[in-house]
Amino acid sequence: MLDKDGLRPTPDRVRETVFNWLSKDVPGASVLDCFAGAGGLGLEAASREARSVTLVDKDREVAAHLKRQCERLQAKNTRVINADVLSFLETSEDDYELVFIDPPYVADELRLQLLSKLIELNRLRPGALIYLEWPKQQVMELNHARLSWVKQKTAGKVRYAIAQWGLSG
């Protein structure tokens, strides 16, 4: 495990709940892990037969660690991108069926900025599922009429949820 300031892996019980929620949606999905950090969410998706998993982290050391993890796990369905995720989305032409958005808590404005960018650049496939995590004391409002909550839960100091991008509209 990489020990780095600000790195906050998703707790095991949260990850277990999330992947129970997503058990039918991960196999064959195109996945984007926006603030990959320790890689728990993206690598879990890769191990559950996602078609492709893109792990994005702007920290060079973190990205190098993720690449080593992917090689060690022989996760052929993964790619690691060392970039700011908003910049990456500007240059990428990929779209996704499952997106993990779990920015550092000190940068909470990134959640809504990223949702807006994904929508603006048409990076969400119809019906795409989006995982969001935030501190329990904060309020998280979806910023688009075609986004709706599917599930939400609290664990300790963390709130987490799945939202879905509208199938039409």
- The CATH architecture is 3-Layer(aba) Sandwich
Helix and strand composition category: alpha/beta
Shape: globular
Instruction: Quickly count the domains.
Output: 1
Query: What name does CATH use for the topology?
Result: Rossmann fold
Q: Class in CATH?
A: Alpha Beta
Q: Please, what is the CATH homologous superfamily?
A: Vaccinia Virus protein VP39
Radius of gyration (CA) equals 15 Å
Mean pLDDT: 90
β content, as a range?
25-35%
Kindly list the characteristics that best describe this protein:
169 residues; alpha/beta; Rossmann fold; seven-stranded mixed β-sheet; 5 helices; globular
Could you characterize what this model shows?
It is a single chain. By secondary structure, this protein is α/β, with parallel strands linked by helices. Helix content is 30%, strand content 30%. It contains five helices and seven strands. It has a seven-stranded mixed beta sheet with strand order 3-2-1-4-5-7-6, with helices on both faces. α4 runs parallel beside α5 (109-120). The radius of gyration is 15 Å and the shape is globular. The N and C termini lie far apart (43 Å). The relative contact order is 0.17. The model has no long low-confidence stretch (mean pLDDT 90).
